[in-house]
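Bump. Still looking for Amine sulfotransferase structure tokens.
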Amino acid sequence: MATCPIIQEREGEWTSNEMIEVLSFRIPAFFLSGSESPQVLCDFITNFQTKPDDVFIVSYPKSGTTWVQEIVWQIYHNGEISKKVLGDRVLFIEKALLPESTHLDITTMPSPRLFKSHLPYDAIPKGTDDAKTPCKYIYVARNPKDAAVSSYKFMASFGTNGMNAPWEFYAKLFIEGKTVYNKWNDHVLSWWKHRHDPNVLFLKYEDLKKDLQSNVRIISEFLNKSLSEEVINLITEQCTFKGMMKNVQSFLLGGKVEGPKFLRKGMVGNWKEHFTPELDERFEKEVLEKLKGSGLEFDFEL
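Sorry for the wait, here they are.
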């Protein structure tokens, strides 16, 4: 049986959130209920059987997953806006064993089944005969400086169950790959290498900000969903940050207004309010340097 220890990074009185290691990557400890062992989640992910029309929306945390989930949902529902919490419409694979999860209905869900995940490519569920019946994966990547700031703000919003440390401590952990889902660069490159696979669509958060309408069209074509220009325009309008904030109740964790929020600012370049020149230099050398030669580049301001 695999060992999945509880991990919590410490430095003096500062602590990270509690994590567990599953399939060689870290996830928040609260993704498991008290009655389930980490091995059960390992087995669930490893043995999960996909269907040809399954769609996974994937990213490193705080990189636009919520945004793309809503776009995909609206594409499949011709621009409909749902008041139902997004997490009940698009199921989060890594949280499938939580008591409040609807995972027991996964096998009987009507197709197409929509899933959210933060798994790297090698760990994402795949069909037993992937070459003949591949499901589809939409991966969205965000520049690591904004992703790190957004991740910190989100984890800190959990209070005593989250990050009990200043931004500088979290940034250090992010660079070293000691946060959830390990190193950002390893994660995005695992998917970037498969960007030409016919069942993988690789998107960038910054590109969606620059031209949302074109990307809604790209996503709908990837999903083989023929939509009129009227519906494309409607989805584009409804899936701007301003448009989604009109239905903010759908994007609250547990439906609680006072709790952590999946929608914060929706900006490109907010990192500049948090990075010192020294930290920026570390990110360039220890995070972005590893992208050189891959062809993967990011916008850091618009």
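The mean pLDDT is 86.

Edit: fixed formatting.
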